[in-house]
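re: ur msg from earlier - yeah i can do the nicotinamide-adenine-dinucleotide complex, just paste it... oh wait u already did. ok heres what im feeding in:
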Amino acid sequence: MLNGEKKLARPLRWAMVGGGRLSQVGYKHRSGALRDNTAFQLVAGAFDIDADRGRDFGVHLGLDADRCYADYRELFSRERQREEGIEVVTIATPNGTHYEITKAALEAGLHVICEKPLFFTSQQAREVKALAEQKNRIVGVTYGYSGHPMLLQMRQMIASGEIGEVRMVDMRYTHGFSASDSADKFEAQKWRVDPAVAGPSFVLGDLSTHTFYISQLVLPELKLQSLLCDRQSFIASRAPLEDNAMVMMRYHGGAVGRMWTSSVDAGSMNAQQIRVIGSKASLQWCDWLPNELRYEVQNQPSQLLHHGMAYLDQAALAEDRLGALHTEGLTDAWANIYLRCALAIDAKNRGDETALANLIYPDIDAGLEGVRWVENCVRSADSGAVWVNYE
Ligand SMILES: NC(=O)c1ccc[n+]([C@@H]2O[C@H](COP(=O)([O-])OP(=O)(O)OC[C@H]3O[C@@H](n4cnc5c(N)ncnc54)[C@H](O)[C@@H]3O)[C@@H](O)[C@H]2O)c1
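and the outut:
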């Protein structure tokens, strides 16, 4: 169980690009990174596309005014000149900026924690992976939901054969907040339906990359062989970007899967779910009841495993923060992801590649796989919703 005791010799000096006053995701980063007060220390930032608003926001977060910068270039160059400058930066800006800011951060010698979808193309991700290796730096990706401890329980139970041979993976990430075109008036939605800023997809990148990463987390051995994606723009002005998509998948070894992702699932607040069906039993987790894992063995009463209970695997208990009596939520999951990234950065800094290899965290490969997933889905959909080999 986690209790906030320090796991690093000292907190990492941390900055943010984006995640400003009006952003949707900025506070999730800060509440995740700063939860334990021992892993990260927020010391600088270029928080906003509007430089004055960004500086003002930084000051209201309690930062020194001279460490609240106009843009990421100034942030990286000025911090580099300081004896105790930043060591790691989070990038929480719209998708189209991730690639150039990540590259600039790595060139400045920083570790990076970046938002998803990581980049527009897998070629960009491979290039950045090579740059990170050359610079000996970490790139983490904030697949925040994946920090819920019950997903590690799911991973362990599948690995130890408790559901038998995996046959099907059923995934969904939908909500209804874009059911009407009035949603597109809001700043955070405008760019999501603009290919120049959002990239080659809307909901496939925005939503399904989360659930796709969760499938990789709980099923690390399962590899995609081919898929068929059909995507729609129910609000016509969003074309060519989709607000709904359905994907069928075939994995190497014979298992099959499906993913439904949508922002026009009218009335739905947020519905993310993964069900893994094996030859003996099934496991099901959803993000609106993240403290539970449903375990259904054929011909037996179903069980609801509960977070923090002694019967769980050590991996799931190790990241529990509140104990079984109290409800954990998304901010706890984000705190776990940030802690995992901090441990990865620390291991990298110490040159401890063994420790690094044993850590489970959303790394550059996880970011690359998310981009690759979107690329393959778009290729299938735009070829007329046909089966394509997974490339
Ligand atoms: N991991 C998650 O659960 C999750 C949730 C929401 C958003 N996201 C991702 O986070 C990113 C941001 O999404 P959002 O919804 O917060 O967007 P948003 O439009 O609400 O906020 C973007 C923020 O970035 C700032 N910004 C834009 N360009 C900038 C630049 N060049 N330099 C500095 N600041 C800049 C804006 O001023 C704003 O503060 C996207 O990639 C999105 O996909 C992830």
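cool cool. The pocket of nicotinamide-adenine-dinucleotide is lined by residues 17-20, 22-25, 46, 48-49, 71-72, 92-95, 97, 115-116, 142, 144, 187-188, 206 (CB under 6 Å). ping me if u need the other ligands too
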